[in-house]
UniProtKB/TrEMBL annotation:
Keywords: Repeat. It comes from Rhynchospora pubera. Residues 24-74 form the NB-ARC domain. This is NB-ARC domain-containing disease resistance protein. One of its GO terms (molecular function) is ADP binding. Coiled coil: none annotated. The keyword Cytoplasm does not apply.
Length: 612
């Protein structure tokens, strides 16, 4: 009898990426290794990268995923043929400067313009004639250099006919160039898969941009873009939309059609019918990494929010929920406009994320309580939490989080004390005891004018505490492991005297304009190793400084009312110090080198960054 035979389907580089799950780590490992070969290791003669495994486990699929990744495509194109052209000549020398014999084989073209001749890009005919020879290029990068004499770039206009001839272009990188507009002809670049206009003066993208059906990466972070055109839903192959997460522009309706999207820096909810709606997050099931959701105060329909179902988006590891459209908030307790308090509580309850979350930030929440999921111990991977500008009287039970390493509380308008509720109903008073003691845990409390006390059992493992404008906090009682303390803005003058901090090694006092004296005559500072005082405009005296016999490093900067003599007031134990802008001292130091002072070491940078 004839036996039935089956033929194996032909293999190709095409792959249905949306239907593949669980191969991200394998793909990233392959791409990382391949890119490291392209990254400058000229001694390596790697020709073949093998993927070994049993039949049927998906070796070909992983190879296809890596092959089609835009980063690897760009790297392969770059490795074929590179040419960097620097235009700094006069017009009559332009045609003579470059050898155009290999222009057709050039795949990567980098145009470098100096400040004085940036206008040649648009207005120099010889230059434009030269560029026509490179119509076979796959990648174009435009670099603009500033001169020492100027601080702003000469605006560059991209000519329409310049792009019309480059039909084979795959990648355009205009980042950091002073372009103010793109021509409509960009929509004719049907093979374009990468477009970067980050750090430019571009305010609008032409409507034709959304004819680029093969576009996979669109980057416009840190640029002046006000709004994307409404046709964004046509970019059905877009995988990476890297917009500005600091000052995000409004997204148009249709973002939910980008079902292959994997990275999105900022999801901005609008008010109008043509603006982005929160329900559009429903179909973006492949989002991974970081997601920042802005303008939650514009949400009016809770059914739209329920459709999002963040719990099923298990690849999101960093989540930010912001009820404002920016990071500005009123330290004087003004709630964000739009959403009512009751609705904000319901909305935050609905937006419960997946339990694989590593980092959580919540901004400008106007509810009177946090939902139960904030601090739920089922979030056993959550390592970093930031709560800013909220109106709850009690903190959520964050002490139940077994992996919490970093906690920042900012603008806690109505919190009077940090008490046992901080540890949860079933938690022990010690709290945070499952943390690795070798890690440094941080708590930063800022603009909390009603905060009166922090209970002694806050954390026996806590080593760093930063307080900002906590004017009613007169004691932090006993923190046995606390070694680093930062005091910023206003603080109670009795704080150091009333607290018991036996292991305190470092104090940073900064921008405390109202204090006139600093009293160091207490047991908390006897073992002090480093002291940094910065920007205290009214400070006139530091009592007990010469008695700090363990002090090794000292920095006092920008305290104009403080008249101090190092030989008279400083302890003999100091290894190095610096005094700058104090009284009649412009600058004086001992064994101080850039990078060696307290303000420049790891601890100083870490504490100051926390305060900012």
């Amino acid at each position: 009898m004839p036996t039935a035979t089956t033929s194996r389907p032909p293999s190709s580089s095409l792959v249905q990426e949306a239907a593949i799950h669980g191969r991200e780590e394998d793909k990233e490992n392959i791409i990382k290794q391949l890119l490291s070969q392209h990254g400058g290791n000229r001694d390596c003669n790697l020709k073949v990268h093998t993927v070994v495994g049993m039949g049927g486990i998906g070796k070909t699929t992983v190879a296809q995923l890596a092959y089609n990744d835009t980063r690897l495509v760009a790297s392969n194109e770059i490795s074929r043929r590179k040419l960097e052209m620097t235009f700094d000549s006069s017009e009559d020398q332009m045609e003579k400067k470059f050898d155009l014999s290999e222009a057709n084989t050039t795949r990567y073209l980098s145009i470098v313009t100096t400040q004085d001749n940036a206008e040649h890009i648009a207005g120099n005919k010889p230059l434009m004639d030269i560029l026509q020879h490179f119509h076979g290029s796959r990648i174009l990068r435009l670099v603009q250099l500033l001169t020492w004499e100027t601080t702003s770039s000469v605006p560059i206009e991209i000519p329409c006919n310049m792009l019309q001839t480059w039909r084979h272009i795959r990648a355009l990188d205009f980042s950091h160039a002073a372009i103010t507009a793109l021509p409509e002809s960009i929509g004719n670049l049907k093979l374009l898969c990468y477009l970067n206009v980050s750090n430019t003066e571009l305010k609008f993208l032409p409507d034709s941009t959304f004819n680029l059906y093969n576009l996979q990466t669109l980057e416009f972070g840190h640029c002046s873009l006000l709004k994307l055109p409404n046709g964004i839903g046509q970019l059905i192959n877009l995988r990476h939309l890297n917009n500005n997460s600091e000052y995000p522009c409004c997204l148009p309706y249709g973002i939910g059609l980008l079902t292959k999207l994997q990275s999105l820096k900022a999801f901005v909810i609008g008010k109008g019918n043509s603006d982005c709606n929160i329900s559009e997050l429903k179909n973006l099931v492949f989002l991974k990494g970081s997601l920042n959701i802005f303008c939650l105060n514009n949400v009016s329909d809770m059914e739209d929010a329920k459709a999002v179902n963040l719990q099923k988006k298990r690849y999101i590891e960093q989540l930010e929920l912001n009820f404002r459209c920016d990071y500005e908030f009123d330290i004087y307790d003004h709630e964000p406009e739009g959403i009512r308090r009751e609705l904000s509580e319901e909305l935050l309850e609905i937006l419960k994320p997946n339990q694989n979350l590593i980092e959580l930030k919540i901004f400008s929440y106007s509810g009177s309580r946090f939902p139960k999921w904030v601090g739920d111990q089922s979030f056993n991977k959550l390592a970093k939490v930031k709560l800013a500008a909220f109106h709850c009287r009690l903190l959520p039970p964050l002490g139940q989080l077994p992996s919490l390493k970093y906690l920042e509380i900012q603008a806690a308008y109505k919190v009077h004390y940090i008490g046992h509720e901080f540890f949860g109903v079933n938690a022990t008073p010690e709290g945070f005891q499952s943390l690795e003691t070798s890690e440094m845990e941080h708590i930063s409390t800022s603009f909390s004018p009603q905060l009166i006390t922090i209970i002694p059992a806050l954390s026996s493992a806590l080593t760093t505490l930063v307080l900002m404008d906590c004017t009613k906090l007169s004691t932090i009682l006993t923190l046995p492991s606390l070694s680093h303390l930062g005091l910023f803005g206003k603080f109670h003058k009795m704080l150091l005297l009333n607290s018991h901090l036996p292991q305190l090694k470092t104090i940073v006092v900064s921008w405390s304009h109202e204090i006139t004296s600093l009293d160091l005559n207490n047991q908390n500072v006897r073992s002090l190793d480093a002291l940094n005082i910065y920007g205290c405009a009214s400070l006139e005296s530091i009592d007990g400084l010469n008695r700090l016999l363990s002090l090794k490093r000292l920095s006092i900067t920008m305290c104009p009312q403080l008249f101090i003599e190092p030989e008279e007031h400083f302890p003999p134990s100091l290894d190095r110090y610096e005094v700058r802008g104090c009284g009649d001292i412009d600058y004086v130091s001992k064994d101080y080198r850039p990078g060696s002072g307290l303000a420049d070491d790891d601890l100083g940078v870490r504490i100051n960054m926390m305060s900012l």
